[in-house]
Amino acid sequence: MKPKSEKEKGPAQTYLERIKWLEVMIDSKQAELCRLDSLVKRITPVMSTTGAGGSGNPDRHGDAIAKIIDLQNEINRDNDEFIDLRKEAGKLLKLIRQPEQYQVLHKRYVLYESFENIAVEMRYSYRHICNIHGRALQAFEKVLEEHRHMQEAIKDMRFVQITKAAGGNEK
Length: 171
Known about the structure:
mainly alpha
């Protein structure tokens, strides 16, 4: 039994795979940041913007630094999202009641281990790990659904409180 293909992924698997996706994006942006930093160190600053009538950008150094700052801010936002997602996913994974299911999902989506490695570590066959994985995703999907319902209920309660407070102020 093979893991589901891209088209067959459910909301639980999609949610958990966002962790790895965000980390990959951050790593890519970090590499781009290093490239830009290296580029800035090779740019010679222009001492005077008057005179020689060149058609190039007179402040290439400043533009490159601005791009670095923008990219650093983007990486910081992505890091915040990544940390929040990992924290939330960790809390939600703890709600899975079967230890084996928790272990498979944690190893797969938080530690990024392959099914083969998980099978070896847990001393199960690859097929059995895939079966546990499937059941674990179903269990996690229920956890996610309950979490979303709770989030919606909290939003509704806040809306009611705000509405009551606004209505109470008018009297």
